[in-house]
Every structure is written in C-alpha cells, then in structure tokens.
Amino acid sequence: MDVVVFGATGTIGRAIVQEALKRKHEVTAVVRNPASLELEDERLQVTTADILDPAAVAEAVRGHHEVISAFGPAAGRENDLLRAAESLLEGLQAAGLKRLLVIGGAGTLKTESGEWLMDTPGFPEKFRPLAEAHGHAYEIYSASSLDYTYLSPPAVIRPGRRTGQFRIGLDRLVVDENGDSSISVEDFAVAVIDELEEGNFSRTRFTVGY
After folding, report:
1. Which of 79, 89, 139, 174 is deepest in the core (most CB within 10 A)?
2. Rounded to an integer, what distance in angstroms lies between the CA atom of residue 166 and that of residue 6?
3. What are the pLDDT digits (tens) for 127-172?
4. How big is the chain by its Cα radius of gyration, in Å?
C-alpha cells in the first residue's frame, strides 16, 4: 500500500511511519524540515508541504492511495486543527483521493459517567483548548463526504513497548481494571496501520487502550 503521512516528525507520526515501513508499505512522509525525520528506508520518501495549504496538500497526495494525518498544532495555535481539516478535505478532493485516517484527540471520548473526558474533574485546563479544537475538527470530518476514519488515543499515550495487544472501543474511553486509560505510542501506531490495512471503521471514530 502507498500511504502519505502528514505530521511524520512528531512522536506519534514517526511511530506510524516506522510501523508502516515495518509492514512493507510504501510511505511518503510530509514534513517541514526533511532533516528532522532522521529515518532511512528504501520504501520511504520524504517531501515538504504545508498542511494548511489545500494546493500543497493536493500536490503532496496526488498519485498516492491513502493519507494519514498525525498533525499536531503548536501551543496557542489550536485552531490550526480546524484549518488543517478543511485543507485536507479540499486538497484530497482536488487530488481525487477519498481515504483519510486522522489522529485526533481523547477529550470528547465518553467516560463511564457519560461525560466527555475533558469535562471530568482533573482534566488539565491547559489542554482544554486543544481538546475542544480536536472536537470541532472531528465535526468537520464527519460532515464531509470523505471516507475518513478518526482515531482517538486513550487518556495517556507515551513511548513504550510494541506488544500488538490492546482493546478497541468506539466513542467511549477504553479503561483497564484499575480505571486507567493508556497505550504505548508503538501500539497506537499498530492500531493505525491495522486500520489502514483492514478498513473496519469507515466514516466513524474509534479508540484503543490496554
């Protein structure tokens, strides 16, 4: 499979690229600074493009099969998530692509109480603008005609081990027997590439966790 990955230099984006390459997919990593990726593979191509520019998006994805966005905005520029969503939709349409996997946020996942995670006591207030922006971006994707999949991480995601063992949920936070919601970055990347290959969650959202 031939996949384009936006946000390939971030922690999650880099893990997605590595997992895709591990499974022998052809990967085009879209970055701002090619030197920052520091990955080499015969199946990897690196290109530059601005995800906020629909014409640049169209140029980057044209001729490829699937697109993954792991774009994350700079602090204070959370609304760039909305601009990126609109740009991706316009750019993919111009290029004739219909399939998009988006790495979103966990803030609008439901907890056991039925509340959104970002509305629960203890949710860090400094992360609320980002959580709200992710929620609005999800609305943009879900209102489109694109064949999108929106993958929300659990409450905690950090580098760890690749086990390939995790559970899947839809719009409700996946928690373990202790009430914790977490996954390693490596296993999250496994879930992303599983969806790339299997396409089980067309035009919907899902989440994962241990």
Report:
1. 174
2. 25
3. 999 999 999 999 999 999 999 999 999 999 999 999 999 999 999 9
4. 16
